[in-house]
Amino acid sequence: MTGPATAPSAGTSDGVGASPRRKEDRRLLTGNGRFVSDLQLPRMRHVAFLRSPWAHARIAGIDASALDPHEHPVFTAESPGFDVSLRALSALPGYVTTDQPPLARGTARFAGEAVAAVVADDRYQAEDALERIEIEWEPLPVTVRAWTDEALAADGTGVGRSPAPEPVPAPVHPEAPDNQLLSRTFEAGDVDGALAGSAAVVRRSLTTNRHGGNPMEGRAGVALYTDDGHLTFWSGSQVPHLVRNLLAEILDMPESRVRVIAPDVGGGFGVKAVLYPEDLALCLMARSLPGTPLKWVEDRAEHLTAACAARDHHYELTAGFSADGRLTAVAADAWCNVGAYSVYPWTAGIEALMAGGLLTGPYKVEHYRCTVRGITTNTTPAGPYRGVARPATVYAMEALLDSGARALGLDPVDVRRVNLIGPDDVPYRLPTRLVDDTGHYGECLEAAADRLDLAGLRAEQARRRREGGRPIGIGIACYNELTGLGRAASAGPRMPFRTGHEACTVRVNPDGRVLVLSGVTSQGQGWETTAAQIVADAMGVALDDVEVRYGDTDQVLWGFGAFSSRQAVIAGGAAHLAARAVREAALRLAAELYEANVDDLRLEGGRVYVAGSPEPVGSLADVARVAYLESNRLPAGFEPGLDATRFYDPVMGAFAAGVQLAAIEIDPATGELTILRWVCVEDAGRAINPQIVHGQVAGSIAQGIGGALYEHLVYDDDGNLRTGTLLDYLMPTSAEIPEMDIGHIERPADNPLGVRGVGEGGTLGPAAVLAGAVADAVGIDVDELPITPDRLWLALQAATTDGTSR
Amino acid sequence: MKPAPFAHVRPATVAEVVEALAAGADLDGGAKMLAGGQSLVPLLAMRLAAPSLLVDLNALPSLRGVAADGPDAVRIGALTRHADLLVQPYSVSGADLVAPGATGGALRNENGLTGPGAGAGDMPLLAEAARWIGHTAIRARGTFGGSLAHADPNAEWPAVALACDAELAVAGPSAERTVTAHRFFHGLLQTDLADDELLTSVRLARPRAWAFTELARRHGDFALVLCVVTELDAGWRVVLGGVAGTPVRCPSAEALLDAGERHPAAIAAAVAAAPEAEAFSDLHASAAYRRAMAAELAARALRDLRPGPGAAPVLGTEHVSSAALDPQNRAVTPPSPSASPERAGTLAVTLNVNGRHRAAACEPRHTLADVLREQLGLTGTHLGCEQGVCGACTVLIDGEPVRSCLTFAVQAEGAAITTIEGLAGPDGALHPVQDAFSRCHGLQCGYCTPGFVLTAVHLLATEPAPTRPVIREALSGNLCRCTGYTGIVDAVESAAGSMGGGGAG
User: Fold this and answer.
1) Which domains does chain A have, with CATH numbers?
2) Which of A492-496, A566-570, A651-655 has the lowest average pLDDT?
3) pLDDT-based confidence at B175, cuts 50/70/90?
4) Do B220 and A733 touch (CB under 8 A)?
5) Which residues touch A727 (CB under 8 Å, ≥6 apart)?
6) CB proximity B219 to A under 8 Å
């Protein structure tokens, strides 16, 4: 599986391996993007949702009598057709299935949950109308945290044996009296024995901060139901085919009458890979108002309170080490706050199971036990967000390694070196049975250390410690990004579908130009360009002659969509296979037309060449014209037309290796942290478009830094979100994000294009890097995120007072 | 997040404002004054404020400007934009502000250049404080007087006013009155202004020495804590912002300074022990942290004390108002909004967008962003937060970047509006900045891109060859969630190069 350091370059200047300008750029740069919120249709009306001001309350009555029902139709859970629910299903033993209604039914379970919806001629008037709806509330006791102090102190906690939670007085769902929707224990080897025989055993107790994707475009939808029984739903969705499938099922409609269109989408990051109750409500409302397109555009206040968030976790961790720093065992208990509902269709298990499944990261661990729990609370549902759980688990694992290195008096980089999965170890079976196919972590680490000038920084650190000056620290994160999951490792917890495959159709039009219909979608990843590069290369045509379409379920056969860093691996594989198939068909036909041996023909730049002759004998356009328009010239046995559809499933998936290192400086007087240098080296396999790969890594690191230092969705004890505006929910700007030094080693993976996914990896490192760097600089363990000046300063004060600072 | 309905009136004189306020007081929701709108409009959008009448002050040009007011003071019109105070010598004359017979006067001569004696009224403290306020688009619209009247204790101007013994001129139904800063701030967002009064101008004593220090979570955020130290003829002032409901003075620290103590640690100790530094806790910082930072900032201020004007070489460089540099490099006449009578319901509005006059029918509450998008079909202007934070809706108004979610369409009449659709050449050729964004992968999903591109166009018009840190600071009023900013900074740097490092295309 190990290949050359640089993948073989493609034959063309804009094929695989090149960075041509993106096809999507021009329209986006000139204001001609096609976002859902831009859509205007005849007779269109606008929807606003009335949202619960209470985190947990019974709905005693809703009075909309002040509104004229013809002018302002109002919908509630009692409206006809609204007796359906989203039910995220999993075959995981002990999983508790719960209902999520399109509009709160009887009880509101989080502040911000949609309770009623109103229709008006514009959004202003819709919001005016909301003020005239009265709701009578009966508040209930509220649960905000997913773990209790008792649970953290209980016997067995920290070694993967925390006791199950007790029933609570006012459970979020009656089906789960203890608020636990799922629990699973991962176990391999003999943890207790290994810990007992360890030279050092370290424990850490870590809390990560709830934050979310916050794409710059909120969610948006336009639903139109025509009276001939067809539903069209324009949605800023990452998963239009899943949405079609789920809507058809819930609305009891034929799938052929449901069309979902995801046009340009202003960022997704996982948040838009969910079918939301608002989506369902909008479609139900449209069915009640045939012929009237209904538009809802989520505003930022709604996004912060009602779109999926993530990373609200607590970890109790134990690790054993041998005297030379090798991990002997890892044990953990983890609690994941899943919020008020089991997110559809990924379930409440999405974060907890990922946390338990990949906690050990790229490190060799034989003895492992981890109990994870998904606990429902009266907060916004948690769902998929770039990196799913691993920004937290990488933080946890690196904290254990830093503590182990310190306990043993070893260099923290050396401790990584002896534990990383290496090229000789692959395929390496993780203790959770996932198979790591890379092993280039060490190479990434050494390259990153060189680029950072680790030795120089250590010398400067020592000098400052000796001579005074602001302390500097170096943080380390090594991670394995599980990408392009095939059927054997498919995303999500035993749901009634497997997301291992994608379809792609490649069609040569009669003019010889190529149309690609791809099942995955794009929310900024540049798929329109990279898919075209793949197909142009595989076909032997110019990039300009390839047109890519995606996101419309009526155009594209099937696709699960964009999530889990799967576009390049799975959809790229499908595009490549379909393009090769069409190329072969075209050349077979060309062989007949030009009376040549098919093995002597090749397609290049859209022209057909015979071996040994520098001049083309014809063109793809000539061949395509015959295929479509001149059946009289078609040889016997040839069907008209020139296209192919292929599915691809990598079965396992491809791990992408990544290492981030950073140097920071702390101002002890203010607790301010300044990033001095940031280095990332990734093995994302063969880069289809290096500039886009670079952009994915840089963007994901920035989100990781945001989560580590700034972003925090804070709830008070009553379940009110206290960070409901962008003045309080702080996303990093260009002034906070540092310059980044990003390096790539390209080790081709075992799939048709040799690619690995790259969308999420960057988010995995920053929390670990920054927490580790703080500990390295000032000897304070960071046990809670985000790292704020206030918290850091308070910790420094406490350490000075106690003399505990190392 | 759309404002509730209100009527809009744009008086041309202070007397008309007072009259409108008095009339509005009888309405259900009362009346509110609209100055820069950077704090008020988000409150309207969230419906935390729902006045029946908005009295728009932006047709009172006589309230915008800066002038020397005697040898030791400056007078600043209430409608002076933050950006006006950023670059000295001042480019906005406040001659009208100073009573006839007073010494001083306009700080610039007619051709906009610094003339003999001009700059005598400069006050570098103001430029330093303005630098900390928000971002370019916020500073282009937000006003000095609006900030004082809003009275956010974490804002810069209230603390500066207190540190400069400000005297605030207030117009109302009876004779104009003057109130000192000390008495003006009553509490969190509470001032001495009655419902029917407006702030017209503010007289600030010019410090002989000064320092301004601030801590904020991100660049441009409201301060966690800030400290202003000034030496006035009347003595030293040590003022803290962000610790209490109003900016507060620290008399014990001031007394030490008056007695000749200059040691930073001594001043910090006095601040740390001062009852006035009794701080509050909120989401972003604890009370203990705030108090400690007040002391730390006071110490830093002492180490950073700078002389007042005259001694420091802050003058002599020719600065041109950024308003005079729009991307097309055309000569621009400053916006001269005219008075309008009270208007409510649906109005016929004409907007000059990308060089064309476009008619729209809108209510006073309709934001410029919504009218551009919904009525004029210019959907390249995007809404990302409707709170004035994300910058996705940035357009250029008379060459200045402005948040179109915080500007009502009725306010934009008569101004030249440039949206992303107006940037490419008539032949479809991309503007050099657009081209560089594509070349350098400065966009991914493209949603924030129009705001970034227009902000960058303005930056390169005012600063043709910015360094990367300058680019990062200038763009920090715009949020991008995809790129990590790397490609965007690359693009702006590259565009500066391709534009020859001078003059916008």
Assistant:
1) 25-33+501-648 (3.30.365.10), 36-140+219-297 (3.90.1170.50), 142-210+309-418 (3.30.365.10), 435-494+653-806 (3.30.365.10)
2) A492-496
3) confident
4) yes
5) B221, B222, B387, B389
6) yes
